[in-house]
Amino acid sequence: QVQLQESGPGLVKPSQTLSLTCTVSGGSISSGDYYWSWIRQPPGKGLEWIGYIYYSGSTYYNPSLKSRVTISVDTSKNQFSLKLSSVTAADTAVYYCAREDSGYDGIDYWGQGTLVTVSS
Amino acid sequence: QSVLTQPPSASGTPGQRVTISCSGSSSNIGSNYVYWYQQLPGTAPKLLIYRNNQRPSGVPDRFSGSKSGTSASLAISGLRSEDEADYYCAAWDDSLSGSVVFGGGTKLTVL
Questions:
Q1: Most B CBs within 10 Å: which of A4, A69, A107, A112, as the mutation test of the B interface?
Q2: Contact B44 A112 (CB under 8 A)
Q3: Which of residues 12-31 of B touch A (CB under 8 A)?
Q4: Which of A39, A114, B32, B56 is the most buried (most CB within 10 A)?
Q5: To which H or E segment does residue B89 belong?
């Protein structure tokens, strides 16, 4: 059974960089069958796709966040990471890491989510 | 403002059939698959429908999806109290560099 687990600081100061890591267990991140994604959900609001990375390192980002987002992968640790720079209160959200099937079968595994609050 | 448009709320009584709509454009729903996700309170979303109308293993056949043109629908028949949740549609969007776009979500209340 594939499991994903987010980790990182729950509180980030405005203008700083938010950094999260997702550890994948029960499956290899090097599988060419999946994209490894980040999705966020502000409190009480809907889902917003941030971007994803393929095991090869190819990335796709939400155009509205592209200038501030970096997603990277560490296949040796079976992890992928998110960095979001110059954060503001609007970036306060539950951040989910997830696995998306590259064959159009959808986002089939999600982490439990981690709340990141941007506040001084 | 979400790229895909869903009604903010829907409701039904146990046993009833409820549908939730999702409206998009030619660059997303009109040319790509539609997905539906169910989010129970306090939990991560769960894949409910993929490729417009396919159910993952374990999803009851009470849930069904359809797509026509630039719109899609999720139907839930034989409504149960445990179906009370938020439902999100999603699709790839060719005009946004291949991004995934979500609907704003529909909160389903079982009366």
A1: A107
A2: yes
A3: none
A4: A39
A5: strand B85-93
